[in-house]
Each structure stands twice: as C-alpha cells, then as structure tokens.
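Worked Example 4.2. Read the sequence first, then its structure tokens.
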Amino acid sequence: MKLWCVDDVMTRDVVSVGEDTPYRELVDLLISRRVSAVPVVDRHDRVTGVVSEADLLHKVEAAGGVSPRIFDAWRRRGDRAKAGGRTAAEVMTSPVVSADGSLSLAAAARRMQRERVKRLPVVDHQGHLIGIVTRSDLLKVHRRSDTEICRDVVAEALPGASVTDGTAVRVTCVDGVVSLAGRVHFRSAAARLAGTARRVPGVVDVADGLTFDIDDSMINGSERGTPFGVA
C-alpha cells in the first residue's frame, strides 16, 4: 500500500522571500498573493524562517501605544522586537519547523499540532526549499473518490483472507466510510482486514460487519493466534 506523503500534496510553486526583504514588501506580497505566510531563505536558498501575518501584526499592535503589563512583559519581549523590525530577518519566526517530502501525512499533521504551526516548509536533504504544505493540503487525501478507496481496500485487505465456504468479503464505500461484510474463519483475520482498511489513504471510518467462525485471539502458539484488534 502506498501511503500518501507530504510530496503528494505540497505546493511546489511556493512564494518565498529573502532575509533582507523590507516589511512593506512583505505586507504587499501576502495581500497580493493571498497567502498567510511565506518562507524566508538565505542567499543559498536554504530556509531560515517563516514570516506570517501574525509576525507582521506585532507592528500594527504596537502602534496602539499600549504598554505591556509588567507580568507578561518577559513573554512579549520577542513580540516587541518584531514590532520594531524592518526586514524579513527581523520579523520572521525562527528556527523554522520544516518537513521533507517523504514525511507521511499523519506525521506531518502530528508535527503541526505539536509545534502549533499552520504550515511546514518542505526542504531537501540540504535544507533547500522545494515546497510548502499547509493544514488544508493535508486534507486533500480525503478528496479521493469512493471508487478509488474501495479499489485500494480490495487490493490491500482481501488477498489471503480466509473466508468461509468461499463467500467473498463484500466491500463498499460511501463518503469515505468503508463497510465490510462477510464471514471469515478466524477472529484475527477479521481484525487484520479491518485494520488494513483503516490505513488506506482517504478512509474516514470503517464499519466492521465481519463475523468469524473461530475466536483465535487467545490461542497460544497458533500462527493465526493474535490478540484481537492487532493488525
């Protein structure tokens, strides 16, 4: 099974800026290109940071002239520095949280969640910018058609399935929800079928309607015996 990676969904025609790009030019770029952030690269095209709308808004906020409260002054020291910045290097968020093209979509989603970022610049093994992946890009996997998903489930999950009386396991997919029906010999086989189906790219959920003849989940030493639910 081919798992979708960042390389499958990232934007390749990525807008980037140099470290010496002026503040006003950054504002114009975000507005004109309708993007919320741009990677910052050095003269060797290596990513050194990201400038987002949030980074630029510190200057707008500072224009209000409200002094920070004494208790949160230390937390906002970096924000105040950005408010006085004139170039991309002075307002960008750094170090940058990036990804390589082979990173799985699941791992990319976890990284975004953990680091609390909305996008990941994609870099090659030398740190050169080759694309960018956003949260909305990661959702593209769920635009796969039901036909594509059903085809992959049949190809990946059914071969080798030990069915009862030669009756085929039935697979259907509606709105990304895969339904499995049929009877197999072993409980572990039913668990493996459902587990494999859940890992197919684009699957929203699995309605497991499989039944089995033998509960082999507690058979020690059996080739098929494995705790139920372990694929």
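Now turn to a second chain, presented in exactly the same format:
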Amino acid sequence: MKSILHIDCSPRAESHSRQLSAAIVEKLLEVAPGASICRRDFGPAPLPHAAPDYATTLSSAATLAAPLKGSLDLSEMLIQEIEAADAIVIGTPMHNLTVPSVLKAWIDQILRAGRTFKSTPAGKVGKLHDRPVFIAIASGGVFAGDRANQPDFLTPYLATVLGSIGLKTLQFFSVQATAFLEGDSATSARAKALAAIDLTVMRNVACPATVEGER
C-alpha cells in the first residue's frame, strides 16, 4: 500500500468521527509505514455544491462529449485522488439520520456517468478498481444493534453510492449515542470501535481485495 485518501466531514475540530478516522489511518500506517496521505477535511474546507456549468455538462451526452470549459476540473481532481489511493478512510458524523451535506457534495462530484460508472438496463456499473474503504461514523443516537431507536439512512446509502462506482469493500465502524457519552463511557465506546479496526485493517489491507470494477 502506497497511498491513503483520508477524508473527514465533522464541523467539530475534536469529534468522535475524527478520532476514529485518525485511529484507522494510524493502523494502516502500522501495516504500511511508508504510505503517503492525501488529506481532505471538509469541516473547515467544504467543497462547493454542484455549479451550474457542472450540472449542464452532465445533463446530456452531447455536453459530455464537449464539456463546458473547466466544468469538470474539480470532479476530475477528486476522482483521481480516489484512483491514486490504495485505501480510503472516511470519518463522518450522522446528521439527521444520513450523511452531512459536505460529504454529499463530494459524492455528487465523484459519481459521474461515463467516468466512474456506466448506466445499464440493470443499473449503474462501477468503472473504478475496488479498494478497501473504512468509514468511521459518530451518531448522537443509536442506529444499530438491540438498542437502536432511530433509522439508519447513512450506511446503506454509502454502500449503494460507493458500490455504484466500483468501491465495494467497505467496513463501517461507529461510536453511537455520543449525545449521552461522557468520560469513561465515551472512552469505552471508542475502545470498542478501535478493537474492531485492528481485525478488519489486517484482513483487508494485508490481504487486499482482488475484485476490480469494470472498465
């Protein structure tokens, strides 16, 4: 492994999702100490939402053949960051049951017909090579397990959209009920998530996936 794409989405400088994503990157560097880090922090530096020229360029096959000047530059840069990475780490809070808008803005730039996926009668087929994606989630409520008291639209959404471009080897880690965690309970919740990270990082990076997205 030579390169890691590390993305954070929390608006808070000190957050559970940031601590989890940093821990995952640390574990990856233990496996591959020479790996470089490509950093995207959408908290202090959010991406712009889709601009008119970008939307116009994607609106038809004709404009895709001759895109408006500069309209795809940001999208292309973000896609190339994914292509260059051997592993991707995403730290994100759950906002109102799903992904925060800053992560959605990134998704809207990397899902591009003809570039990262092709449309077929059966649906989208990814064109990117698969690689491990580690997703660290922090949620104020409980969305998984026996104590779940709210829906989860985040994990199935990310699995679907990332899978549609070819990224299918996803591992989710979470610290839940952060609105009620303090002191030792917060430390215990993070430790539980980190214990799972040790196992999955070794399985997915030491023995990387061999499945490739279609080209």
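Notes for the reader: Residues 210-215 have pLDDT under 50 and may be disordered. The first strand starts at residue 3 and ends at 8.
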